[in-house]
Design brief:
alpha/beta; 2 domains; 5 strands; about 45% helix; nuclease activity; metal ion binding; Putative nuclease HARBI1
Protein backbone atom coordinates (compact mmCIF):
# COMPACT_ATOMS: atom_id res chain seq x y z
CA UNK A 1 0.00 0.00 0.00
CA UNK A 2 1.31 3.47 -0.88
CA UNK A 3 2.60 5.38 2.13
CA UNK A 4 0.27 8.19 3.12
CA UNK A 5 -2.73 6.76 1.24
CA UNK A 6 -6.04 7.81 2.92
CA UNK A 7 -6.94 4.20 3.66
CA UNK A 8 -4.04 4.09 6.11
CA UNK A 9 -5.75 6.54 8.45
CA UNK A 10 -9.43 6.01 7.67
CA UNK A 11 -10.00 4.69 11.19
CA UNK A 12 -8.38 7.54 13.06
CA UNK A 13 -9.66 8.61 16.45
CA UNK A 14 -12.19 11.37 15.76
CA UNK A 15 -11.89 12.57 19.34
CA UNK A 16 -8.56 14.34 18.84
CA UNK A 17 -9.20 18.05 19.48
CA UNK A 18 -8.54 19.44 15.99
CA UNK A 19 -10.95 16.93 14.43
CA UNK A 20 -13.60 17.51 17.09
CA UNK A 21 -13.51 21.22 16.22
CA UNK A 22 -14.02 20.46 12.53
CA UNK A 23 -16.64 17.75 12.75
CA UNK A 24 -18.86 19.47 15.31
CA UNK A 25 -20.05 21.68 12.45
CA UNK A 26 -20.16 24.85 14.55
CA UNK A 27 -16.78 25.83 15.99
CA UNK A 28 -14.75 28.65 14.49
CA UNK A 29 -11.95 27.08 12.44
CA UNK A 30 -9.82 30.20 12.11
CA UNK A 31 -7.73 29.74 15.28
CA UNK A 32 -6.42 26.36 14.07
CA UNK A 33 -6.79 26.53 10.28
CA UNK A 34 -6.81 30.30 9.54
CA UNK A 35 -9.83 29.96 7.23
CA UNK A 36 -13.52 30.29 7.94
CA UNK A 37 -15.64 27.15 7.91
CA UNK A 38 -17.19 28.26 4.61
CA UNK A 39 -13.79 28.74 2.97
CA UNK A 40 -12.50 25.39 4.27
CA UNK A 41 -15.55 23.67 2.77
CA UNK A 42 -15.03 25.52 -0.52
CA UNK A 43 -11.36 24.51 -0.65
CA UNK A 44 -12.18 20.88 0.09
CA UNK A 45 -14.67 20.90 -2.75
CA UNK A 46 -12.24 22.55 -5.19
CA UNK A 47 -9.52 20.02 -4.41
CA UNK A 48 -11.76 16.95 -4.49
CA UNK A 49 -11.28 14.53 -7.38
CA UNK A 50 -13.45 11.60 -8.55
CA UNK A 51 -10.97 9.26 -6.84
CA UNK A 52 -11.55 10.82 -3.40
CA UNK A 53 -13.99 8.91 -1.21
CA UNK A 54 -15.14 9.25 2.38
CA UNK A 55 -13.61 11.85 4.66
CA UNK A 56 -9.96 10.92 4.02
CA UNK A 57 -9.76 13.80 1.54
CA UNK A 58 -11.20 16.23 4.10
CA UNK A 59 -8.60 15.10 6.62
CA UNK A 60 -5.74 15.68 4.18
CA UNK A 61 -6.88 19.25 3.56
CA UNK A 62 -7.16 19.85 7.31
CA UNK A 63 -3.66 18.49 7.93
CA UNK A 64 -2.30 20.78 5.22
CA UNK A 65 -4.12 23.86 6.55
CA UNK A 66 -3.08 23.13 10.14
CA UNK A 67 0.56 22.99 9.05
CA UNK A 68 0.19 26.19 6.99
CA UNK A 69 -1.45 27.94 9.94
CA UNK A 70 1.27 26.96 12.40
CA UNK A 71 4.32 26.41 10.13
CA UNK A 72 5.36 23.92 12.77
CA UNK A 73 7.27 20.66 12.48
CA UNK A 74 5.74 17.54 10.99
CA UNK A 75 6.20 15.95 14.42
CA UNK A 76 3.82 18.47 16.02
CA UNK A 77 1.22 17.97 13.29
CA UNK A 78 1.60 14.22 13.67
CA UNK A 79 0.75 14.48 17.36
CA UNK A 80 -2.15 16.86 16.75
CA UNK A 81 -3.84 14.46 14.33
CA UNK A 82 -2.53 11.19 15.78
CA UNK A 83 -1.10 10.04 12.46
CA UNK A 84 2.46 9.01 11.53
CA UNK A 85 4.97 11.75 10.79
CA UNK A 86 5.85 10.22 7.42
CA UNK A 87 2.17 10.37 6.48
CA UNK A 88 2.01 14.04 7.49
CA UNK A 89 4.97 14.76 5.20
CA UNK A 90 3.29 13.01 2.27
CA UNK A 91 -0.04 14.71 2.86
CA UNK A 92 1.43 18.21 3.04
CA UNK A 93 3.42 17.79 -0.16
CA UNK A 94 0.51 16.13 -1.97
CA UNK A 95 -2.04 18.80 -1.04
CA UNK A 96 0.47 21.55 -1.84
CA UNK A 97 0.63 20.27 -5.42
CA UNK A 98 -3.17 20.17 -5.57
CA UNK A 99 -3.46 23.77 -4.39
CA UNK A 100 -0.87 24.90 -6.94
CA UNK A 101 -3.07 23.46 -9.69
CA UNK A 102 -5.75 25.96 -8.64
CA UNK A 103 -3.50 28.92 -9.47
CA UNK A 104 -4.96 29.78 -12.88
CA UNK A 105 -8.50 29.45 -11.51
CA UNK A 106 -7.91 31.88 -8.65
CA UNK A 107 -5.11 34.20 -9.84
CA UNK A 108 -5.76 35.73 -13.24
CA UNK A 109 -5.88 39.02 -15.11
CA UNK A 110 -9.20 40.85 -15.52
CA UNK A 111 -11.05 40.46 -18.79
CA UNK A 112 -11.43 43.35 -21.22
CA UNK A 113 -14.88 44.04 -19.77
CA UNK A 114 -13.51 44.06 -16.21
CA UNK A 115 -10.68 46.51 -16.94
CA UNK A 116 -12.98 49.53 -16.76
CA UNK A 117 -14.24 48.43 -13.34
CA UNK A 118 -10.68 47.90 -12.13
CA UNK A 119 -9.66 51.32 -13.45
CA UNK A 120 -12.61 52.92 -11.71
CA UNK A 121 -11.52 51.24 -8.49
CA UNK A 122 -8.03 52.73 -8.71
CA UNK A 123 -9.52 56.11 -9.59
CA UNK A 124 -11.44 55.98 -6.30
CA UNK A 125 -8.38 54.89 -4.37
CA UNK A 126 -6.26 57.68 -5.82
CA UNK A 127 -8.98 60.29 -5.53
CA UNK A 128 -8.26 61.48 -9.06
CA UNK A 129 -9.73 60.70 -12.48
CA UNK A 130 -6.18 60.81 -13.87
CA UNK A 131 -5.72 57.27 -12.51
CA UNK A 132 -8.73 55.79 -14.34
CA UNK A 133 -6.41 53.81 -16.65
CA UNK A 134 -4.52 52.20 -13.77
CA UNK A 135 -5.37 48.51 -13.47
CA UNK A 136 -2.90 47.15 -10.95
CA UNK A 137 -0.30 47.78 -8.27
CA UNK A 138 3.00 45.87 -8.07
CA UNK A 139 5.46 45.26 -5.26
CA UNK A 140 7.82 42.68 -3.82
CA UNK A 141 7.74 40.86 -0.51
CA UNK A 142 10.60 39.09 1.30
CA UNK A 143 9.70 35.82 3.03
CA UNK A 144 12.19 34.80 5.69
CA UNK A 145 13.70 31.32 5.32
CA UNK A 146 16.17 29.20 7.23
CA UNK A 147 19.64 29.70 5.66
CA UNK A 148 19.99 26.98 3.00
CA UNK A 149 23.00 24.69 2.99
CA UNK A 150 23.94 25.75 -0.56
CA UNK A 151 24.37 29.32 -1.86
CA UNK A 152 23.19 30.84 1.42
CA UNK A 153 24.80 34.20 0.54
CA UNK A 154 22.47 34.56 -2.46
CA UNK A 155 19.47 34.54 -0.15
CA UNK A 156 20.88 37.14 2.25
CA UNK A 157 19.00 40.38 1.58
CA UNK A 158 19.63 44.06 2.28
CA UNK A 159 17.58 43.77 5.50
CA UNK A 160 20.17 41.29 6.79
CA UNK A 161 18.17 38.07 6.76
CA UNK A 162 17.79 35.16 4.33
CA UNK A 163 14.69 35.32 2.17
CA UNK A 164 12.84 34.32 -0.97
CA UNK A 165 11.04 37.01 -2.94
CA UNK A 166 7.41 37.17 -3.96
CA UNK A 167 6.52 39.69 -6.67
CA UNK A 168 2.81 40.32 -6.98
CA UNK A 169 0.35 42.51 -8.84
CA UNK A 170 -3.04 43.14 -7.24
CA UNK A 171 -6.24 44.92 -8.20
CA UNK A 172 -8.14 47.61 -6.29
CA UNK A 173 -9.80 44.96 -4.09
CA UNK A 174 -6.55 43.38 -2.85
CA UNK A 175 -6.89 40.32 -5.09
CA UNK A 176 -3.69 39.10 -6.70
CA UNK A 177 -3.68 39.22 -10.50
CA UNK A 178 -0.19 37.78 -10.95
CA UNK A 179 2.52 36.27 -8.76
CA UNK A 180 6.17 35.44 -9.43
CA UNK A 181 8.02 33.56 -6.68
CA UNK A 182 11.50 32.20 -6.20
CA UNK A 183 14.24 34.78 -6.64
CA UNK A 184 16.67 34.86 -3.70
CA UNK A 185 16.58 37.84 -1.37
CA UNK A 186 19.79 39.48 -2.60
CA UNK A 187 18.27 40.34 -6.00
CA UNK A 188 16.94 43.89 -6.55
CA UNK A 189 13.20 44.30 -7.18
CA UNK A 190 13.86 45.81 -10.62
CA UNK A 191 15.85 42.75 -11.70
CA UNK A 192 13.15 40.41 -10.43
CA UNK A 193 10.62 42.33 -12.50
CA UNK A 194 12.74 42.30 -15.66
CA UNK A 195 13.15 38.52 -15.43
CA UNK A 196 9.49 37.80 -14.69
CA UNK A 197 7.03 36.57 -17.34
CA UNK A 198 4.95 39.68 -16.63
CA UNK A 199 7.73 41.83 -18.13
CA UNK A 200 9.40 39.45 -20.58
CA UNK A 201 6.14 38.29 -22.19
CA UNK A 202 4.33 41.64 -21.81
CA UNK A 203 1.48 39.89 -20.03
CA UNK A 204 -0.07 42.89 -18.27
CA UNK A 205 -1.30 45.60 -18.37
CA UNK A 206 -2.90 45.80 -21.84
CA UNK A 207 -1.99 48.67 -24.13
CA UNK A 208 -3.45 51.95 -22.94
CA UNK A 209 -3.44 50.93 -19.26
CA UNK A 210 -0.85 51.22 -16.49
CA UNK A 211 0.20 49.61 -13.22
CA UNK A 212 1.75 51.45 -10.27
CA UNK A 213 5.00 50.66 -8.46
CA UNK A 214 7.29 52.23 -5.88
CA UNK A 215 10.63 53.90 -6.48
CA UNK A 216 12.46 50.58 -6.52
CA UNK A 217 11.10 49.97 -10.02
CA UNK A 218 11.91 51.74 -13.29
CA UNK A 219 9.30 54.13 -14.68
CA UNK A 220 8.57 52.58 -18.08
CA UNK A 221 6.09 52.60 -20.93
CA UNK A 222 7.56 49.54 -22.69
CA UNK A 223 7.34 46.56 -22.53
CA UNK A 224 4.78 47.42 -19.87
CA UNK A 225 3.47 50.72 -18.58
CA UNK A 226 4.72 50.97 -14.99
CA UNK A 227 4.34 54.33 -13.26
CA UNK A 228 6.45 55.14 -10.23
CA UNK A 229 6.48 58.25 -7.99
CA UNK A 230 8.78 61.22 -8.54
CA UNK A 231 12.00 60.98 -6.59
CA UNK A 232 12.22 62.99 -3.39
CA UNK A 233 12.73 65.86 -2.97
CA UNK A 234 10.16 66.78 -5.60
CA UNK A 235 10.78 69.84 -7.72
CA UNK A 236 7.35 71.47 -7.71
CA UNK A 237 3.76 71.23 -6.41
CA UNK A 238 2.65 69.25 -9.48
CA UNK A 239 5.06 66.42 -8.65
CA UNK A 240 4.14 66.55 -4.95
CA UNK A 241 0.45 66.36 -5.74
CA UNK A 242 1.00 63.44 -8.13
CA UNK A 243 3.01 61.54 -5.51
CA UNK A 244 0.25 61.92 -2.91
CA UNK A 245 -2.42 60.50 -5.23
CA UNK A 246 -0.05 57.83 -6.53
CA UNK A 247 0.68 56.63 -2.97
CA UNK A 248 -3.04 56.36 -2.15
CA UNK A 249 -3.61 54.03 -5.09
CA UNK A 250 -0.33 52.12 -5.01
CA UNK A 251 -0.59 51.22 -1.33
CA UNK A 252 -3.35 48.70 -2.05
CA UNK A 253 -0.62 46.12 -2.76
CA UNK A 254 0.78 46.71 0.73
CA UNK A 255 -2.69 46.07 2.13
CA UNK A 256 -2.97 42.86 0.08
CA UNK A 257 0.36 41.64 1.47
CA UNK A 258 -0.75 42.70 4.96
CA UNK A 259 -3.95 40.66 4.75
CA UNK A 260 -2.06 37.61 3.49
CA UNK A 261 0.54 37.97 6.26
CA UNK A 262 -2.19 38.31 8.88
CA UNK A 263 -3.67 35.00 7.76
CA UNK A 264 -0.41 33.08 7.52
CA UNK A 265 1.49 34.80 10.35
CA UNK A 266 3.55 31.73 11.18
CA UNK A 267 4.91 31.60 7.64
CA UNK A 268 5.59 35.30 7.15
CA UNK A 269 6.82 36.31 10.60
CA UNK A 270 9.31 33.58 11.35
CA UNK A 271 11.84 31.70 9.24
CA UNK A 272 10.24 29.04 7.06
CA UNK A 273 12.15 25.85 7.89
CA UNK A 274 11.82 23.97 4.61
CA UNK A 275 14.07 23.70 1.58
CA UNK A 276 13.98 26.75 -0.75
CA UNK A 277 12.44 24.70 -3.55
CA UNK A 278 9.48 23.73 -1.36
CA UNK A 279 9.31 27.18 0.24
CA UNK A 280 8.53 28.63 -3.20
CA UNK A 281 5.52 26.32 -3.48
CA UNK A 282 4.31 27.14 0.04
CA UNK A 283 4.50 30.89 -0.65
CA UNK A 284 2.54 30.44 -3.88
CA UNK A 285 -0.10 28.49 -1.95
CA UNK A 286 -0.42 31.39 0.49
CA UNK A 287 -1.21 33.75 -2.40
CA UNK A 288 -3.67 31.31 -4.01
CA UNK A 289 -5.53 30.78 -0.73
CA UNK A 290 -5.50 34.54 -0.14
CA UNK A 291 -7.51 35.03 -3.34
CA UNK A 292 -9.89 32.22 -2.42
CA UNK A 293 -10.56 33.90 0.93
CA UNK A 294 -11.08 37.31 -0.70
CA UNK A 295 -13.58 35.86 -3.16
CA UNK A 296 -15.44 34.07 -0.34
CA UNK A 297 -15.61 37.19 1.81
CA UNK A 298 -13.32 35.58 4.40
CA UNK A 299 -11.54 38.84 5.21
CA UNK A 300 -8.90 39.57 7.83
CA UNK A 301 -7.56 42.98 8.74
CA UNK A 302 -3.92 43.43 7.69
CA UNK A 303 -1.23 43.34 10.33
CA UNK A 304 0.22 46.76 11.11
CA UNK A 305 3.84 45.72 10.61
CA UNK A 306 3.03 44.72 7.03
CA UNK A 307 1.44 48.05 6.13
CA UNK A 308 4.18 50.14 4.62
CA UNK A 309 6.40 50.04 1.58
CA UNK A 310 8.75 47.10 1.26
CA UNK A 311 11.62 49.30 0.14
CA UNK A 312 12.86 47.85 -3.11
CA UNK A 313 16.37 49.18 -2.63
CA UNK A 314 18.08 52.15 -4.21
CA UNK A 315 15.86 54.04 -6.68
CA UNK A 316 16.60 53.20 -10.29
CA UNK A 317 17.78 55.87 -12.67
CA UNK A 318 15.00 57.57 -14.64
CA UNK A 319 14.50 56.70 -18.30
CA UNK A 320 13.37 59.91 -19.97
CA UNK A 321 12.56 58.11 -23.21
CA UNK A 322 9.97 55.84 -21.62
CA UNK A 323 7.72 56.11 -18.60
CA UNK A 324 8.78 59.61 -17.56
CA UNK A 325 6.71 61.19 -20.32
CA UNK A 326 3.65 59.10 -19.50
CA UNK A 327 4.03 59.95 -15.83
CA UNK A 328 4.30 63.63 -16.73
CA UNK A 329 0.98 63.50 -18.59
CA UNK A 330 -0.75 61.82 -15.65
CA UNK A 331 0.78 64.33 -13.22
CA UNK A 332 -0.48 67.20 -15.36
CA UNK A 333 -3.95 65.65 -15.41
CA UNK A 334 -3.91 65.30 -11.62
CA UNK A 335 -3.19 69.02 -11.23
CA UNK A 336 -5.54 70.19 -13.97
CA UNK A 337 -8.64 72.01 -12.61
CA UNK A 338 -11.84 69.99 -12.76
CA UNK A 339 -13.91 73.08 -13.56
CA UNK A 340 -12.90 76.23 -15.39
CA UNK A 341 -11.94 79.04 -13.03
CA UNK A 342 -14.33 82.02 -13.02
CA UNK A 343 -12.06 84.09 -15.29
CA UNK A 344 -12.50 81.54 -18.09
CA UNK A 345 -16.21 80.88 -17.81
CA UNK A 346 -17.43 83.92 -19.76
CA UNK A 347 -15.54 83.37 -23.01
CA UNK A 348 -14.10 80.61 -25.20
CA UNK A 349 -10.78 82.12 -26.31
Amino acid sequence: MQRGHPSQYCRLNLHVPVLVIYFDGESDLRPDFRLSRLTVAHLIQLLRSPLDHGWGHDLEVLVFLFWMASATSYRVVSRAFAIPRSTVHDIIHRVTEKVLRLKNRLIFFPSADQLQTTGAGFERLAGSAAFARVVGSIDGCHIRIKPPSADAQCYFNRKLFHSIQLQAVCDHQCQFLDIFVGYPGSVHDARVLKNSPLYVKKLYPPEGFQILGDGGYPCTSEPLALITPYREPVRNPVEARFNRHHAKARSVIERAFGIMKARWRSIFFKALEVKPQFAVKVIACCAILHNLCQKDGDILEPVEEALGPDDGGDPVQPDLACGERLRGRIAAAVSAPVNNPPALQDHDY
